Amino acid sequence: MKERIPQFLALFAERPIKEARGGKRAPELFATWLMVQTLRPAHIVESGVFGGLGTWLLERAAPEARLYCIDSAAAPRVYRSPHAEYFTRDFAELEWSLPRENTLLFFDDRADAVARVREAERRGFIHLVFGENYPAGHGESYSLKKALMGEAAPAPRGVVGRAWHAISGSRLGDAARYLEASLETYFEFPPPRVAPTTLWGEPWTDERYPTPPPLFEGPGDPDDLFVTEAQAYTWTCYARLKRSAT
């Protein structure tokens, strides 16, 4: 991973969006770029386009892959790929006639990640990457990391959803057990650097924020991109399903 950083930084310097406010930052983009280059998918579904910086990076990580980008019509898109197909309906609402073995689903859309895994499994997909994979107690959506740390899934919205949630007894740990039974691989990409405090201003301890060991120890060069954006680390992960849906 360390050996690939110069190549990534040279590419990152050419990015079309310099100020990614509210969008993806260097730690997540490096993780995504490296995982896509390693997996070499023929098709990529990107759910959560926002400004389009992730789309631009995916194009360069897998230039031969076909891209399918999903976001609302109101997304503040700055970069639009001439090689991608764009959709405004949710991933679960679309029909996909893609080869499951070499298609990568990249979710960075703040949806329930466990629900995304269930939907991907039902449709027979295998390879998934999640961007905002925040730890228990943080983040706007339910992530795989929250589930695996033991945080209970939120109750569904609406009267019917809440009633079913109460009847079915969605208990603490149910989501974790499902993931352990369904996933062959769960891999959190390590941070290039770890800041003294997290994105939420709290001490970055492994008890509160379990994290893979960083690629580099120590404070690093203050001008280093991975130092200045260390707090933007999102525990980006790769999840591989054990089997296709039958």
| CATH-derived topology | Rossmann fold
Number of domains: 1
- CATH hierarchy, class: Alpha Beta
Name the overall outline.
globular
How many distinct helices? 8
Please give the share of residues in helix. Answer: 25-40%
The major β-sheet equals: 7 strands, mixed
**Percent strand:** 5-15%
- Amino-to-carboxy terminus distance: 36 Å
Decide which structural class fits the backbone: alpha/beta
**What is the mean pLDDT?**
88
Count the E strands: 7
* Poorly predicted residue ranges: 160-170
Pattern of helices and strands: HHEHEEEHEHHHEHE
Secondary-structure map:
Layout: H1 5-12, H2 26-39, E1 43-47, H3 53-61, E2 66-70, E3 84-87, E4 103-107, H4 113-123, E5 127-130, H5 144-148, H6 159-168, H7 174-182, E6 183-188, H8 225-228, E7 237-241
Parallel strand pairs: 1-2, 1-4, 2-3, 4-5
Antiparallel strand pairs: 5-7, 6-7
Explain this structure to me?
By secondary structure, the chain is of the alpha/beta class. The protein has a single domain (about 1-240), classed as Rossmann fold (3-Layer(aba) Sandwich). Helix content is about 30%, strand content about 15%. It contains 8 helices and 7 strands. It has helices at about 5-10, 25-40, 55-60, 115-125, 145-150, 160-170, 175-180, 225-230, and strands spanning about 45, 65-70, 85, 105, 125-130, 185-190, 235-240. The chain has a 7-stranded mixed β-sheet, with helices on both faces. β4, α4 and β5 (about 125-130) form a beta-alpha-beta unit. α2 (about 25-40) runs parallel beside α3 (about 55-60). It is globular, with a radius of gyration of 18 Å. The chain starts with a helix and ends in a 5-residue tail after the last strand. The relative contact order is 0.15. Residues about 160-170 have low confidence and may be disordered.
